[in-house]
Amino acid sequence: MLTRRTLLTTSALGLLAGCATRAPLGAKPSLLTFADAPISLHDFTQFASSPLILDRVELWWISNNEHMIVGHIRGGLTAYLPSNKRFGDDLQLFGSRVLPYFLGKDLRLIEQHIETCARANYKIVGLPFWNHIGHLEMLALEAIGQAAKRPVFDLVGGGKRSSVAVYLSNRDRHTTPEQEIEAFMLPRIQATGARAVKLGIGGRMSRNADAWDGRSEALVARARKVLGDGCSIAVDANGSYDAATGIEVGRMLESYGVWFFEEPCPFEEFEMTRQVTQALDVAVAGGEQDSSAAKWRWMIENRMVDVVQPDLFYAGGFLRSLRYAQAAAANGLDCIPHAPRAHAGAATMLQFIACLDRPGAFHEFSAKAALAQPAYDYAPRLAIRDGAIAVPTGPGFGISYDIEAVRRIAKPVTFDVGEIDDGD
Ligand SMILES: [Mg+2]
Known about the structure:
Layout: H1 4-21, E1 54-63, E2 66-73, E3 78-82, H2 91-98, H3 110-120, H4 127-148, H5 152-155, E4 163-169, H6 177-192, E5 196-200, H7 215-227, E6 232-236, H8 243-255, E7 260-262, H9 270-279, E8 283-286, H10 293-301, E9 307-308, H11 318-330, E10 334-335, H12 347-353, E11 363-366, H13 367-370, E12 378-379, E13 388-390, E14 400-401, H14 403-409, E15 411-413
Parallel strand pairs: 4-5, 4-11, 5-6, 6-7, 7-8, 8-9, 9-10
Antiparallel strand pairs: 1-2, 1-15, 2-3, 4-13, 12-14
Helix pairs in contact: 2-4, 6-7, 8-9, 10-11
The structure holds magnesium ion.
């Protein structure tokens, strides 16, 4: 039972504890400025002489994993962007809270519209919100690139490389090591010439449990034995471990020469993840769920991970992700964006890598899609040759779609469009 005396003692101890952890006198932290950038970093008006007014957006359902987003620009330009698999999860949010801030607006000023929309909606920002923003931002960049007849990377000072070496990623955890390595990965490696893979370990947000006892080590051991020392092996734990177990698993991974260890701890556990990173020699990677500029600053300044992994959609777009990647590079950290996609959907990632100062050695490509035919025709085909894909260099993200082929398999999706609501 707490008495006044114990309360006082507890308070005093609390104060002492606080003093003990305070920075020594004189070591004041620098005054922080807002983590988010000024409203506009890029002047896209220089690339298109007339405003690019977004009149209308259509959504075409292709599969549960993909919509085609169609932006109609005043004057006749049409911009296309394949969505990610989460886009269709909440079209009410898209239509009511996001799209109204972009309709009727000049897409050359996309960063200003994003700022306005995010400020008005600050109570609901998070991955679903920024995922929608990310789609509209890349649709805008596609339109600007089309109008300027230049690739997006060229609009933002990219063009630093013309091809991207890929790793084949797979997230299955129901497979045996033999099924995963010999039956699944090996034929895809042989067909593509890929020299790196990423495998799912742990149990996905599983509080230290493996998919089944011993699977993770058996899988990594099998991969090393079958794929050889020439293959870079990354693993994704999808937040399976606490710090102590993450470090223990990391030591096991180090013994097999693993390339990087992704999301050892639940993604919101920043300090826990940092402890794992500090303890291990194997590179720790993370950041795919994070859309907050303030959190990105903390992750980079506190070296929470060795490799940053913004997702171009979840993080709110190409430009925000580029800002995080370049801040990370300035702090000595590589960037390997989260991009489990393939076919035309990989174009945004390829152009992003072309802009980076410190890209990792290999970048993500869906292993399941590596040998599959695309759902619709497009050019140039983003096929893996000798383990790499050429960065598309056409206007926008560099892809020409067979729109009639897309229309044949797509169904128009209706959704309500709201009005701008600045809230209270
Ligand atoms: Mg991941």
